[in-house]
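Field reference: sequence -> structure
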Amino acid sequence: MSAWRKTMAILVVVVFLFVLAVTAVSAAETLEVRKIVQNADDITVGDDVTILLNFKNPFQQEIPIQIVDRNVIGNNGLDIQCLEATLPAMDELVLAYEPIVPFKAGKYTLDAAAISFTNPNTGDREAVESNIVSIEVKGDSTTPQAQQKQGITTIYRCGGTNIQSTSYSASSTSSSLNIRMGGQQSGSQQQGSVEQRVANNQLNQNSGQLKKELEQELQKQQELEEQISKELANNSEFQQYDAQLRAAGFNQTQPSFNPITQNHTQITVPYRNESAERKIKADYIHGTIQNVTLEESTPEEKAESKLLWWLLILIAVVFVTGWYLYEKYYKSAQRQELPPIAVESAQTVDYVGDARRMVEEAEFLFQNNREKDAYEKISRAIRFYFAYKLGLNTELLNTELLNTLSAKRDLDTYSEVKSCLDLCGKVEFASYKSKEKDFHKVVEITKAIIV
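Structure field:
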């Protein structure tokens, strides 16, 4: 195997490893969620249908989440517009909704559940979605079970607000939602004036009123975020950090707000340039901005940067080494030719003896655990031998030799030479692990060829 080919093989491997490393570095950990319907293949009218969310938590710590999920079978089910929960520090866990009873046969599609959370590794707000599930409810829609009232329960339980309403075709009433996480039940307790009105049936629970309530809550949240943004922009510490980042070429992007309690909100303001990200973080506690800090490079970012630098240095070293070997060996080899037959004919060169000595050297190399060098020497002996035997004035490449033998229609010699060169090439390029019997067979064939 020539030095140039070895260099190219090394470069290909290095580039491949570099791509793998960059891919691994850029791949961020995140939550995974999958929606599952128990006994999905055997559901009939009147059955309890349990819908599960299977979570995989890679962060090894508790993660507060918000769930948006709609599961309606016919006209019966849950429309969760916002539900807060906390995933424990477990690799995998299951959240189960209260069962839904389908009263109408047919085929139904359950929407993907949308989960939003703050990534503890980056501080960024992220969102993931589950799969969509298709089910079929079998049975007779005229049975007594199918004549039950059907209703869609809408739930909003986020930011301290607890609003819940069940809409029926003929009447409205209140309902409750229980969730089971890891086998345990949990549920939000109703709080505040709105929640008390719900408990006392003083709220007109129809879909229009519920929508109005939700719009009012979202408007309040938006107004609060605008107020926090204004107060943060007027904070002297924030202004200093902001000026420092902008002077360094960073641009501010959309801030995120993470409610911790009713009176405590965490604010994260990301700044980005072409190659890095920084964050200004602060707390809004009881109406005042506190704890303004500039987050420097995370340990993960520092490790990534260090790894990338080392990879770049390695590629530079390999490139320079490859160029040196290319100039020294490959171009030199291109200029070297075997002595012209006219000057030094095959009769004046003991090419048979020289080729056999190469085979002996190959045997010596193999005995000293230098298998690749041994196979390379065998390959060279064969090409050297035929270069003189065929009356050519330059050393042949494998393909050139095989094409020449094929043109001469010497099928036996062609088959034996191809077999030897193919095996030598596989060992040289590390695509085949050499066995002692294989080498002895190649040596035997080569000796029989060189006569």
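Note: The chain has four domains: 1-30+308-336, 36-205, 225-296, 337-449.
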